């Protein structure tokens, strides 16, 4: 094996000097270690990039799910009617029966607590406030 320096090559120098053979082996080992370290670093970088991509995909999926849920909520929102549409038919097919009040409880109520209090629900059907608003329209 010839080199640009003529008849001298790495093998001729190593064979002529025994300490040079040990140095060549150490250099080869160092080069192999550097290559292995570079390969490990590249593998770590690839794993980190894959991890970041997976996290971004998970975040995108979560955002899409939240958007779908919000769209579903917005589209399904409706004003709750006063009908019994949300109750089971078992309970709504019978006419309502009012429970009679317990006269003893009513007699023992202190009506003084309500002295001077007056309230009329204007939205309650049949109330004077509702009737006067309906007749004005």
List the helices and strands and how they pair.
Layout: H1 10-16, H2 18-76, H3 89-92, H4 103-107, H5 128-136
Helix pairs in contact: 1-2
Summarize the structure.
With 137 residues, this protein is mostly helical.
Tell me about this structure.
This protein has 137 residues and is mostly helical. 61% of the residues lie in helices and 0% in strands. It contains 5 helices and no strands. α1 (10-16) packs across α2 (18-76). The protein is rod-shaped, with a radius of gyration of 45 Å. The N and C termini lie far apart (112 Å). The model has no long low-confidence stretch (mean pLDDT 78).
Structural class: mainly alpha
What pattern of helices and strands is seen along the backbone? HHHHH
Our count of helices gives 5
* Cα-to-Cα separation, first versus last residue: 112 Å
The parts where pLDDT drops under 50 for at least 5 residues are none
**What value does the Rg take, in angstroms?**
45 Å
| Average pLDDT for all residues | 78
Helix coverage percent: 55-70%
What is the global morphology?
Answer: rod-shaped
Largest sheet: none
Strand content: under 5%
Strands, count: 0
Give the tags:
137 residues; mainly alpha
